Amino acid sequence: MFTEALFPGYIFAYFDLKQELASVRSCAGVAGVLNFNDKYIPVEKGVIGELRGLATDNEVIEIKEQYQPGDSIEVVAGSFSGIRGLVQTYIPAKQRVVLLLEFLGRETEVEVEMNTILPSKLHPLVN
User: Which residues, 6+ apart, have CB-to-CB distance to 84 below 8 Å?
Assistant: First the structure.
């Protein structure tokens, strides 16, 4: 078990963008203010409140792994779609898993996104 920040390296701050952006950027430890194509997108106050409501100060929230090593899966999207395999490693921070797949006549480890696999009830390495 390990502890991981929900938004590592980020701090949420409310400020007037037009009047205080330069001041915020010049604060010690601030590398930049998040933007997309030079457009700043505010986070609604309700979202921050919901995040705060998930846990009290210093409370650790345990997030259960969706897949465990040895689980049988089927890849349902991407280059390996239709191939069944076994979960080797779950990587929660990247929302990815390392799978053991039979591909081109041999077993190969590949890393895929979580949203490209589903649990499989069939034998994992038989297509």
Answer: 72, 73, 74, 75, 101, 120, 122, 123, 124, 125, 126, 127
What's the predicted TM-score (pTM) here?
0.46
* Segment 63-108, tens digit of pLDDT: 665 788 888 888 888 888 888 899 998 887 788 889 998 877 888 8
Positive or negative torsion for Cα 32, 36, 41, 45? negative
DSSP output for 78-111:
STTTT-EEEEEEEEGGGTEEEEEEEETTEEEEEE
Q: Is 54 helix (H, G, I), strand (E, B) or coil?
A: helix
- The pLDDT tens digits of the residues spanning 13-52 come to 889 999 999 999 999 888 888 888 888 888 887 887 887 7
CB 40 within 8 A of CB 63: no
| Cα–Cα distance list, 47 to 5, 12, 15 (Å) | 17, 11, 16
Q: Give the residue from 52, 17, 61 showing the smallest Cα distance to 35.
A: 17
* Structure token digits, residue 81: 């779609």
